[in-house]
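#onboarding

Welcome to the new folks! Below is a worked example of what a typical request in this channel looks like: someone posts a single protein sequence, and someone else replies with the predicted structure as tokens. Don't worry about understanding the tokens yet, we'll cover that in week two.

Example request:
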Amino acid sequence: MIYILMLFGFVALIKGADILVEGASSLAKRFGISDLVVGLTIVSLGTSMPELIVTMMATFQGNAEVGVGNILGSNIANILLILGITVMFIPINVQKTTVFSEIPFSIIAALLVGFVANTHIFTAHSDVLQIDRMEGGLIILFFVTFSIYIVSLVIEDKVNLDTESSGIEIGHLPVWKAIVFILGGCVLLFLGGKFVVDGAIALAKFFNMSESFISLTIIAVGTSLPELITSVVAARKGNADVAIGNVIGSNILNILFILGLSSVVLPIPIQDASNQDILVVVLSSVLLLMLMAISRKSMLKRWHGVVLITCYIMYTGFLIWRG
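Example response:
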């Protein structure tokens, strides 16, 4: 029964994020907020909502290993699996701002988390890996910096996000229906998060696997499904900026906002093995830059997708070997 509930949890997370975005977007439109702003805020946060709920839920239940694994696993899956599958459908031309700004920023974000998680090496009386509230505040500060950068792009008109052409349609629901969608989405996200976390713990015990392994694989891929759907639809509609921007933006949001917010609410202990996963997050982004450098046109081709997916399979094999 708990595994059936876990499956329902994934469905609830995805559907909850979907109707929450639809309700919030419609309500925002009623107040005259542009599609551009809605797309950069509500829609972007909506695709990362499953990771946020699962991480917060796991942290409050004392299973931080699940929350951290979900964040790191989602970031790895976003680049190697989600982006790999996307470019298998259609090659993507990547803007220079993404190559020289967003991707390097995502690498810096991952290195920052690795640094603050290991600050114990500078403290003689502590050998515990964790992200405390102060360090979480520092991570949030970096997220604010990234948000300012996004706002500057909007102001300078360097971002052209058409939510309709990206496959994300902003509706015009009646106010009462929009509120019902928002409340219903929140309820589904809460229930989905609880069922997924409980199911992950039960699954780990049943197969005698670590909670970290389950969260880095099954939960990470499950909570990354909104990014997969958004990126594939965007790529097939010819909106490459949204396809790759969704992946990179989600990675930055996952690390800086979700992990930062969770650690501010409650300090998060970090497993030693998580340092390896943080390194894989960094190397995945570096690999992305290398592949585009090889193509010489900042372009991700179908064979690049094969390389990315192959690397994800190899990483999964490494996780099985690690236990």
